[in-house]
Design brief:
The complex is a heterodimer of chains A (289) and B (412). Chain A is an all-alpha fold. Among the domains of chain A are: 61 residues, no CATH class; 141 residues, MetI-like fold, CATH 1.10.3720. Chain A contains 13 helices and no strands. In chain A, helix 4 runs parallel beside helix 8. The longest helix of chain A is centred in the first third of the chain and has 33 residues. In chain B, a hairpin with a 2-residue loop joins strand 4 and strand 5. In chain B, 47% of the residues lie in helices and 16% in strands. The longest helix of chain B is centred in the C-terminal third of the chain and has 17 residues. Chain B has a six-stranded mixed β-sheet with strand order 2-1-3-14-6-15. Chain B has a four-stranded mixed β-sheet with strand order 8-11-7-12. In chain B, strands 4-5 form a two-stranded antiparallel ribbon. Chain B has two domains: 179 residues, D-Maltodextrin-Binding Protein, domain 2 (3-Layer(aba) Sandwich); 205 residues, Periplasmic binding protein-like II (D-Maltodextrin-Binding Protein, domain 2, 3-Layer(aba) Sandwich). Chain B contains 21 helices and 16 strands. The chains are: A mainly alpha (289), B alpha/beta (412). At the A-B interface, helix 2 of A face helix 5, helix 19 and helix 21 of B.
């Protein structure tokens, strides 16, 4: 028998609980996704059928899954890109030489991140109210007709995206600030001597130097945004007309509302595969460029 | 003596502890009925746990999966087939004596029926919940209708007249588009068979369901009902007072809410009426909804659990419960004792309760109902045509019922 490296023994106390409480359930869920475990099977295990890849096949035929996937991609692409852009903008502003009370702004922008989502959702529902909401009231000054933010299938997802960005940008902002502070000041000084203007400094110094931070932020944001759940769960329950139904919300409904555990597990693994593929793609693109 | 007073008898540990899960506000108020029960049954303590409506179904299923069921629990009567399929609740008719069973005739038959699955009784109705018409007497009278509509034709006329009178920005009726109840009620009124072949396939393209569905959609096409969901009405009571809508199909809990929340100016102007009917029969059918009480199969105190259900459904307690909550009793003697039919707004419910029907009693029903709501909403919004909505509905329901077909087939 080969000797087990000592590092293993040092890591074992941490690895064991992970294997037990994470690894085992994941393998269990994978097994579940090949069965039609449902309310009938819960009552009597002889009513359980092994369906092989049946759940995955059904998933591809389920119009609701495609709706959920479309909504989730919409959220990830629009929400994710905007969120990263807003956090970078906020980080540049807060980190600017001429800004005073940096600590104050940093805290204020970080505040939504640590606020309870349910409380935030209640307030935002008031803001979005079609007839009495502040947002429509403000739009009224520009002569824009009231929009039924959460009731109109076309506007519900943009409304969720807006709220999610507001709620989350502070976290990425802090990471960007850390990245910005790592860029040596002398680079900017040298560029100034060479006559580079503000935009050129941003384009040729800030952005390239921020690349590792960018990759990190983009990955974390994408992974988080793919798992969209709480916002639509508290704001719209997936409605109106399923326009805010996300993949995780679909999984939750199938699993815990209808107790179709087999099907819900299949949804979970498809989502896992999607996130993995998107992450690998992103890493590949970065290393290529 | 001192010993007795200080409780060294250690009564708590020897007591039988019966656990009751009750849902929503009822869960809070039912606790007031417990001291009397505990007085009648010395040595028994009842622990009431309150569960919110939004989480009740999930919590009960999770409790079942985790083997942590209470002894007695409240459940929506449409959930009963599901818990029977799970083998989670006990039959009640086997436990009761013939005399006790004879007493069951006192319940509204349509409501008691919802507690039966294949002729076996699994729960007793605790309070009823059926839907009927709440309407503005003043607006209806001004539109030329002194009496509430009795059939679909006069109903449609009355709505048209209201709309003509009040103009755009006002609607005749509020039917939240994300609810399944109204299309189903209309279909049941036409004797539509929602599922066919022993509830193994969807049957939503039957002539009766088509007729009900197009009547429902017609209300939106003619702008008699606004195409909004329930969450989009910020303050229902204020809008009803404003005349934004003049009719609303809803349940008994709103008698109390309307009395409390409507401004004084319209307090005398609203009334309730049984649902109109597509034919000469009156009233038209409504849904036999409500909450029931059942005994968990895993309970270790089934005898006492049954005593608790018996106590809570007895006319005397139902009466008290009505006074505390406004929930309508399920037993006819309780209504007569309370002189309930004397209250005009409640009397409509008495009439309606004689004509109620339940949707198909299969575990998949809630899921099917959510699909009906989904396709009704899409058809109202015009995303899909009427025909397409019903075709897809049948298709999805057939898929949901696949397991049921397999189970019935293997059982043969």
């Amino acid at each position: 028998m080969r000797r087990i490296p000592p590092a293993f023994w040092f890591l074992a106390p941490a690895l064991l609980p992970i294997a037990l409480f994470f690894g085992v359930p994941v393998i269990g869920a994978l097994g579940l996704s090949f069965t039609d475990f449902d309310i009938y099977a819960l009552g009597d295990s002889s009513r359980l059928r092994v369906v092989g890849a049946g759940n995955y096949g059904r998933l591809l035929e389920d119009p609701l899954f495609w709706t959920a996937l479309r909504n989730t991609l919409y959220f990830v692409l629009l929400g994710g890109v905007l969120s990263v852009a807003v956090s970078l903008g906020a980080a540049l502003l807060v980190n600017h030489r001429r800004v005073r009370c940096k600590g104050f702004f940093r805290s204020v922008y970080f505040m939504p991140v640590v606020t309870t989502l349910v409380a935030v959702a209640v307030v935002w529902r008031y803001l979005y109210h079609p007839r009495y909401g502040l947002l429509n009231y403000a739009l009224g000054f520009f002569g824009i007709d009231p929009i039924d933010w959460l009731g109109d299938p076309r506007w519900a997802m943009p409304a969720i995206i807006l709220m999610a960005i507001w709620k989350n940008f502070g976290f990425n902002m802090i990471i960007f600030i850390a990245g910005l502070q790592n860029i040596p000041e002398r680079l900017y000084e040298a560029a100034t001597l060479d006559g580079a203007n503000g935009w050129q400094q941003f384009r040729y110094i800030t952005l390239p130097m921020l690349a590792p931070t960018f990759l990190f932020v983009a990955l974390i944001t994408m992974i988080g945004y793919f798992q969209l759940f709480a916002e639509p769960y508290v704001m719209t329950q997936g409605g109106p007309s399923n326009s805010t139904l996300s993949v995780v919300l679909l999984m939750y409904q199938e699993g815990f509302r209808w107790w179709n555990m087999g099907y819900a597990a299949a949804v979970a693994f498809v989502l896992f595969a999607l996130i993995l593929a998107a992450s690998l793609l992103q890493l590949r693109l970065r290393s290529a460029s | 003596m001192v010993c007795h007073l200080s409780g060294c008898r250690d009564a708590a540990s020897r007591d039988v502890l019966v656990e009751l899960w009750a849902v929503g506000r009822e869960g809070e108020i039912v606790q007031q009925l417990m001291p009397e029960f505990e007085r009648r049954h010395p040595g028994v303590r009842v622990k009431v746990q309150q569960v919110p409506w939004t989480a009740a179904h999930e919590k009960l299923l999770t409790a079942y999966a985790g083997d942590a069921m209470p002894d007695v629990f409240q459940l929506g009567n449409t959930w009963i087939p599901e818990f029977v399929a799970l083998n989670a609740i006990d039959r009640l008719d086997e436990r009761t004596s013939r005399a006790e069973r004879a007493g069951f005739d006192d319940f509204f038959p349509g409501i008691l029926e919802t507690n039966r699955v294949q002729a076996a009784l699994y729960g007793l109705p605790w309070y009823v919940d059926t839907r009927l018409l709440f309407y503005r007497k003043d607006i209806l009278a001004a539109a030329g209708h002194a009496e509430p509509p009795r059939n679909w034709d006069t109903w449609l006329q009355a709505m048209e007249h209201i709309k003509q009178r009040l103009g755009s920005g006002h609607y005749a009726i509020l039917l939240p588009i994300n609810e399944w109840q109204m299309p189903v009620i209309l279909a049941l009124q036409l004797n539509a068979e929602l599922l066919r072949d022993n509830a193994c396939y969807g049957n939503f393209r039957s002539a009766a369901f088509r007729r009900a569905f197009s009547f429902y959609l017609e209300l939106f096409r003619r702008q008699l009902a606004p195409a909004v969901g329930e969450t989009q009405i910020a303050n229902l009571y204020q809008e009803f007072a404003n005349g934004y809508f003049s009719m609303y199909v809803t349940g008994p809990w709103n008698i109390g809410e309307f009395s409390r929340r409507l401004p004084d100016s319209v307090q005398d102007a609203w009334a309730t009426a049984p649902l109109p009917s597509p034919d000469e029969r009156y009233p038209g059918l409504s849904l036999a909804g409500g909450a029931s009480l059942a005994i968990a199969r895993t309970s270790r105190h089934k005898e006492m659990a049954w005593r608790l259900i018996e106590y809570l459904t007895a006319p005397e307690q139902q009466l008290k419960f009505y006074q505390l909550t406004g929930d309508l009793p399920t037993r006819r003697t309780a209504w007569q004792d309370a002189a309930l039919p004397a209250n005009a707004r409640v009397k409509a419910f008495w009439t309606q309760l004689q004509a109620v029907a339940s949707p198909p009693k299969i575990p998949e029903w809630e899921r099917i109902a959510s699909k009906i709501a989904h396709y009704a909403e899409r058809a109202v919004r015009g995303d899909v045509s009427e025909e397409e909505a019903l075709r897809r509905l049948d298709e999805e329901v057939d898929r949901i019922l696949e397991k049921r077909r397999w189970l019935l087939q293997t059982a043969q």
